[in-house]
Design goal:
Elements (H helix, E strand, L loop, with lengths): L1 H8 L17 E5 L2 E4 H13 L6 H20 L6 H19 L2 H8 L3 H25 L7 H10 L7 E2 L2 E10 L4 H19 L4 H8 L3 H4 L4 E6 L5 H9 L5 E7 L2 E11 L2 E9 L9 H15 L5 H8 L3 H4 L15 E2 L6 H7 L11 E4 L5 E12 L2 E2 L2 H28 L5 E3 L21
Antiparallel strand pairs: 1-2, 1-13, 3-12, 4-9, 4-11, 5-8, 6-7, 7-8, 10-11
Length: 448
């Protein structure tokens, strides 16, 4: 089924795997101008088994052909991914690596490569993955599912095939980030003011941004952020940028991302075109003692029932993504507040709650945000749901996901029947027995 193939497409990038390269390396498939190597099929096959999504080599190859077909058709249909989106995704992946291995030095030692080299190796893969995802979204952008369709979907499932819902947990947290000291802010401010003086003396803003800015998404473009509408940027940045005249530079502006030197290039109505140089504090140098003491006192008040956890999260948490929801953590894969208690969970969470009882709260624990901020958090083990057969009453949202996936697959199957007529696909005879896509499923065909 294509459902399994699309799950495979979303597995982590090959270059971030520690698998040793496969010696046999030749082209085994071609989709228009895109090629698939035998080593890539082998790696996906191995990685699927490691991540509890075992597949055959035929399924691995088919998933890669699906991916290339989406990308090739996106090129034909002019479905493009912006460079900034690719850069942002790369940055996020590198931050995940830093969280996993502790720091950049450990990554370099583990892989024998710098972070920039790793980013360079996976850039094209990230672009392809984002393009494929955007093409899938375009294919199913008008898809909707009703409660009645969910009920009909569930009624079609044979009694002995009703899905088993694994153990799930509900968790919440309260985060406090380490505060940047006055001395650190002054140090960064002086550096930015020095850049401003150099620019006013004749140096180019874009040259200094490329050399010194710590915003990986805009640095290579000389700090250029392109056009932004009101509400897209953080308030401090936007307010400063909109006050400036064309080509005028700001003084130092502080935001949640760090300290900025901003230059507004153009303004038109409610839009502005700006560039910046961003300097960020060295979060590894920040002291978390005050944050730990604060959370420890909050935890004491919660345990005494002087304040509810949800209220404390709304009032005191620095995590804006969960603050308004009372600190509830959401499964990034499903958007549900129930998270599977398995290897798909964030490792630090998994090992933390493994020894906890429902209803308890941890002491302050180290925490690092996706954008690299250092802090601490307390975790509340709110609920645990035992494995059970899915039911409409208890698992409607999850069944809705399954029903939506089925409906989405039907739409994509229809799209593939048309798309394979527009795209040339050639498969190496070694994989002829795989019968890619199935003879009766496409109108174009696959050449062996």
């Amino acid at each position: 089924m294509l459902k399994k193939l699309f799950l495979l497409i979303c597995l982590p990038m090959l270059a971030l795997s520690q698998e040793k390269p496969v010696n046999i390396d030749r082209i085994v498939a071609k989709v228009d101008n895109y090629i698939i190597l035998r080593s890539e099929v082998e790696q996906l096959y191995i990685r699927g088994a490691q991540q509890q999504q075992p597949v055959t080599k035929c399924q691995a190859l088919e998933s890669m052909v699906v991916n290339k077909l989406l990308v090739a058709k996106a090129e034909i249909d002019s479905v493009l991914v912006e460079d900034k989106q690719v850069d942002d995704q790369l940055t996020a992946r590198m931050q995940q690596m830093i969280q996993l291995y502790g720091n950049e030095k450990n990554i370099v030692e583990q892989f024998g490569k710098s972070l920039e080299t790793l980013k360079s190796e996976v850039r094209s893969q990230v672009r392809e993955q984002l393009t494929a995802q955007k093409m899938q979204a375009k294919i199913t952008e008008n898809l909707k599912i009703t409660p009645n369709e969910v009920r009909k979907f569930f009624s079609r499932i044979p009694k002995d095939s009703i899905p088993e819902i694994p153990t799930e947990v509900e968790l919440a947290h309260i985060v406090r980030f380490a505060k940047v000291t006055k001395a650190q802010k002054e140090e960064l401010s002086e550096r930015l003011l020095d850049y401003k003086r150099r620019i006013l003396a004749g140096e180019k803003f874009e040259d200094l941004a490329k050399e010194y800015s710590e915003d990986p998404g805009s640095r290579q473009y000389g700090g250029d952020l392109s056009w932004s509408k009101r509400g897209q940027m953080v308030p401090q940045f936007e307010a400063s940028a909109m006050k400036l005249k064309p080509n005028e530079m700001s003084d130092v502006v502080e935001s949640d991302f760090g300290l900025h030197l901003i230059q507004t290039l153009e303004i038109r109505g409610q839009e502005f075109h700006a560039r910046h140089i961003l300097l960020r504090p060295d979060y590894n140098r920040l002291d978390v003692k005050d944050a730990s003491k604060f959370l420890d006192s909050i935890r004491t008040e919660i345990v005494k029932d002087s304040i509810k956890f949800e209220k404390a999260a709304k009032d005191f948490s620095d995590d804006k993504g969960t603050q308004d929801g009372g600190g509830i953590l959401i499964d990034p894969q499903t958007g549900s507040n129930r998270m599977p208690l398995d290897e798909t969970m964030e490792p630090t969470l998994y090992f933390t709650i493994d020894s906890m009882k429902v209803g308890t709260i941890t002491a302050p624990l180290p925490f690092r945000s996706e954008d690299g901020k250092t802090g601490v958090r307390i975790i509340y083990y709110k609920a645990k749901h035992a494995p059970h057969k899915a039911s409409l009453q208890d698992d409607f949202e999850k069944l809705k996901e399954f029903a939506t996936m089925e409906k989405r697959n039907v739409e994509i199957e229809k799209w593939f029947k048309k798309a394979t007529a527009d795209v040339y696909i050639k498969i190496d005879p070694e994989f002829e027995s795989c019968n890619i896509f199935g003879k009766d499923r496409i109108s174009g065909g696959v050449e062996y």
